[in-house]
Amino acid sequence: MSTTESSESSESTATPGREPDEQQSRAVAEAAREQDWRRPSFAKGLYLGQFDLSLIHPHPRPDPERRERGERFIADLEAFLRTVDGTAIERDARIPDEVFQGLAEVGAFGMKIPVEYGGLGLGQYWYNHALAMIGTVNASIGALLSAHQSVGVPEPLVLAGTEEQRRRFLPRCAAGAISAFLLTEPEVGSDPARLRATAVPTEDGTEYVLDGTKLWTTNGVVAELLVVMARVPASDGHRGGISAFVVEADSPGITVHRRNAFMGLRGLENGLTSLRGVRVPAENLIGREGEGLKIALTTLNAGRLAIPAICAGAAKWSLKIAREWSAARVQWGRPVGEHAAIAHKVAFIAATTFALDAVVDLSGTLADEGRKDIRIEAALAKLWASEMAWKIADELVQIRGGRGFETAASLAARGERAVAAEQLLRDLRINRIFEGSTEIMQLLIAREAVDAHLTAAGDLIDPHLDVTAKLKAAASASGFYARWLPKLVAGKGYLPTSYDEFGALARHLRYVERTSRKLARSTFTGMARWQGDLEHRQGFLARVVDVGAELFAVSAACARAAMIAADAPEDGRAATQLADVFAEQSRHRTEALLHDLWHNTDAEDERLASRVLDGAYAWLETGILDPSEGTGPWITEEIPADAMADVHRRVVRRD
């Protein structure tokens, strides 16, 4: 977790043809981080024991200037979506061309694109509401639009593009020129230091020549424009490093070899794409050379919020189905929802859906305001929402019993209501992997959560520094901790009248305040105990992050309930009840996580896993057959011989 490497030095340590070691991979990731905290962050404060409720309460409101546009668009979108047959997308594993065309006509490809560039300029709040609705018709459509606007061409250009790039590309994107983001490679997942795709400048400096293979290119099969990440070799006049380019998808040398298929999101247009000698104008470079990963991470600060939005929509649908089914299905003389075993599941779904809604709306309005640093909030929202939505979908399948395991098509063929519960479970599963897996998100958030410690004491725990440098670092760190540690002893959480304006929810906010300080003390203890080895204590770090996620969700739920009570008193009691039960459920999870920080089987698990990998227990695998043996290598950079035909196609007609 060292913060000392510069962007240029870290890029130069990881070059194509040479496998980067752990330190080099870490240096590349560290260089891409946004280093400074220029704006306040509510979630960052939670990890430092600084519970500043004023940052989210009173709850921020959506921009009133966007409300009319947002409500009008949502109405138009709903009318169009009612004509879309989501079951056909699941059956045929393809979004029909007329759906692409209809989305373009209502403006769905330009939801977040500013009005001056031909978009709707709705901002994150209304974009989130649109995705929540879209995902309930078919999750593949939500993934299509999310990949196009959250990580595709529009967001990077809005954040880091030149004015000329914005005027050239954004109107096309708003009108339906679908975009895709090409970073992942067969050897590159969460470790960008391994990236092999290259962008070699021509001698006259007017173009770059791109070569490489990109895997899991969502929208790649139907994209008109691409954002491609490739490594520019350092040379005279070229800073070099991983860089981002806007590339025309029909450029000579680009081939989409295969459309990939998955357990869920069957309508996803996701491909295997190669670039061979693709010439890209120099003016298509986004930002500067070597800034590609930083642009990607900055894009994801808000772009990640698309996934929580889709998760919130899925939770709302799950709640509706669970409520209606649990009241209609009678067993042992009563509706199944009145039996405690099912009632507990229904309560979990209802309370968690309220919190998901709260987290999404709070994060979205904070993003639109632009006055707070939301990199941790967005990451927590993605992490927590994807995990909780998966649990909700799993509970819905359980509530539905055998019908939950049966497909909607099979149910309909038997004359019953076509409830696609098993499809929901399959479609939601990818969200725990998309845009940073849960495990990677925990490490990413942990890095940001301990940033203040690394700034104060990073050199102190750096094993590469000499004694003199460490003594100097100790003096600096002692000043920070002398000011910070006393603040963790006591706070408003111990005052019985604190947060009384929240009524019945005040006790939950007092708990959040106390637990925030306890979490900060635990993090400090971990730093003191393990020092530089803390980054390898991934079980500890994951639990620290998960505690913060629960505290964030409770805070969001309470702030939302207070807003509802103020705006619509007739709904205030119901909102308070939902927030109250959610906070109680969350407290049980939080207490378990806090206990497990220091009482766990992490060391035993890691020793056992090491022996497993060494083959010590291979005898345990006897008595089975593995049909995958002999079908191919675990990872290949090669394009299969039978996959050379280009499956790329254009799906939106534009005048």
Structure description:
Belongs to the acyl-CoA dehydrogenase family. Its cofactor is FAD. This is Acyl-CoA dehydrogenase FadE10. InterPro entries: Acyl-CoA_Oxase/DH_mid-dom, Acyl-CoA_Oxase/DH_mid-dom_sf, AcylCo_DH-like_C, AcylCo_DH/oxidase_C, AcylCoA_DH/ox_N, AcylCoA_DH/ox_N_sf, AcylCoA_DH/oxidase_NM_dom_sf. Keywords: FAD, Flavoprotein, Oxidoreductase. This protein is of the alpha+beta class. About 55% of the residues lie in helices and about 10% in strands. It contains 24 helices and 10 strands. The chain has a 4-stranded mixed sheet with strand order 1-4-5-8. Helix 7 packs antiparallel against helix 13 and helix 14 packs across helix 22. The termini are far apart.
DSSP helix fraction: 40-55%
| Shape descriptor | globular
- Helix count? 24
Biggest sheet, spatial arrangement of strands:
1-4-5-8
Radius of gyration: 25 Å
Structural class based on helices, strands and sheet pairing:
alpha+beta
**Low-confidence parts:** 1-13
Proportion of beta-strand residues? 5-15%
Mean pLDDT: 91
What is the number of strand segments? 10
